[in-house]
Amino acid sequence: MRTDGDSWDIVTSVGLTALGVAAFRALESIDPEPMIHDEYAAWFVEAAGEPRFVDMLEDPASVPVGPFGRFMGVRTRFFDEFFAAAWQRGVRQAVILASGLDARAYRLDWPAGMVVFEIDQPRVLEFKDRVLAQHGAVFKADRRVLAVDLRDDWPAALTAAGFDPERPAAWSAEGLLPFLPGSAHDALFERIDALSAPGSSVATDDFGRGLDSHDFDTEEKFFGGNPFGNLNVGDLWYDDTRAEPEDWLSRHGWSVHHASPFDLAADYGRPITDLPADLPEALLDRMRQPRYVSAEKRS
Ligand SMILES: C[S@@+](CC[C@H](N)C(=O)[O-])C[C@H]1O[C@@H](n2cnc3c(N)ncnc32)[C@H](O)[C@@H]1O
Prior knowledge:
By secondary structure, the chain is of the alpha/beta class. It has twelve helices and seven strands. It has a seven-stranded mixed beta sheet, sandwiched between helices. About 40% of the residues are buried.
């Protein structure tokens, strides 16, 4: 389903996954005990008008959510806290790779002087900016948007937009890695490393590792359906050879930490305890894997 140089808007291919995770952030935000607050996410769902996600917000019981929705709250919180920890250490540049409909530039209380770069495909960012402008949203950082493909020379665009490689930065690659071919995946970490002064940090979720699209079929069976309808998200992933981010970063002077979604959910006061008793061990194992990674550059 993927080809070199393919592109998408917000309701097709990889673009639809950005809309889907926004829908789950919107859902988490209206939970009685939310792990995060993203009041912007519902705007995107309404504007895109994709019936499945619109219905999900109007009637959350209408669409299967399963642990996927819960994990999205965990994931958002993990990256929110990652950026807060970076700015508390004095970092004043953030780079959100594959920003999709991430509204952190508007949502988080960034300190004065913070520059937030967002990189994604042109039609995704056009949609996002149009919706935010229609609602009169005001960003809380110096937001700089780069419509560049992450398989291309994005470091050139980033430095042209004012990124300073001499100063530490906080990088996120959230919900991205399996959508990149192995060469672009490995180049991503090499480029982050080359552009990172000591004191920089990076966070990612390596959620595709060791999976194939059939895992989703199994998940659907146990959780009542695919929240993305007919789109099997696994079909959009690359499964070619690539480095493991923790290994690669450890070998290149970064101190690496990792956590599983279950551990983080418990840390956030929302432990995930209601999984079906007959869930296959293999699926449970991979859900328990420590796929949330953060690292700081030592030297
Ligand atoms: C699952 S969404 C995650 C979006 C966002 N990080 C979030 O968590 O809400 C995947 C995002 O990766 C972006 N993406 C995937 N491959 C890309 C590429 N080669 N160049 C630019 N963006 C890409 C998509 O456009 C989409 O916005």
